[in-house]
Amino acid sequence: MKKVLYIDMDGVLVDFASGLRRTPAAVQEEFKDHPDDISGIFAKMDPVPGAVLAFTALTELFDVYILSTAPWDNPSAWRDKLEWVKKFLGEAAYKRLILTHHKELMRGEFLIDDRDDKNGVDGFEGEHLHFGSDRFPDWVAVLEYLEERV
After folding, report:
1. Annotation says 8 is catalytic
2. Choosing from 10, 80, 113, 114, which is the catalytic residue?
3. Which CATH superfamily is domain 4-15+46-147 in?
């Protein structure tokens, strides 16, 4: 039986800044304190470098699920996140997307997330790999670490 691995979307699989760059400056200014509420912004985002290949490799080794928190006041985000997963991750991610504001409720061995104190990450009972940290700065480091723990 494969170990369970959760991967966060924003900042780990998805490059949030790429969506902002494709958003008009006036809209960015209007939503400067809460850019994740911009309608359609999640449909404009690119993958983080190496994320798609890493996701594919990890699905061979682990029982992988995608975790994300969708803004409550931006209904398009819920749809756009699903469409992003379909577009970039394809069949390997079929019915593997979980939208939640409570990541601490997930049960598994690993969670890859770029935050350590929000949306329940700090309550996750498995091992948290802090993506973007000194220890796990990119997908190469994450893959090297996880390949040793299969």
Report:
1. yes
2. 10
3. HAD superfamily/HAD-like (3.40.50.1000)
Rounded Cα–Cα distance for residues 114 and 120 (Å): 12
**Distance from CA of residue 75 to its chain's centroid?**
18
Span 83-108, pLDDT tens digits: 999 999 999 999 999 999 999 999 99
Whether 114 sits among the annotated catalytic residues: the reply is no
User: CA–CA separation, 36 vs 8, rounded Å?
Assistant: 15
Query: From CA 109, how far away is CA 125, in angstroms rounded?
Result: 8
**What stretch of H or E contains 111?**
strand 110-113
Q: How far apart are CA 9 and CA 65, in angstroms?
A: 10
Length of the chain: 150
Give the pair of three-digit tokens for residue 148: 């040793």
- Which backbone phi and psi does 112 adopt, to 5 degrees? -100, 115
User: What is the identity of the amino acid at 102?
Assistant: H
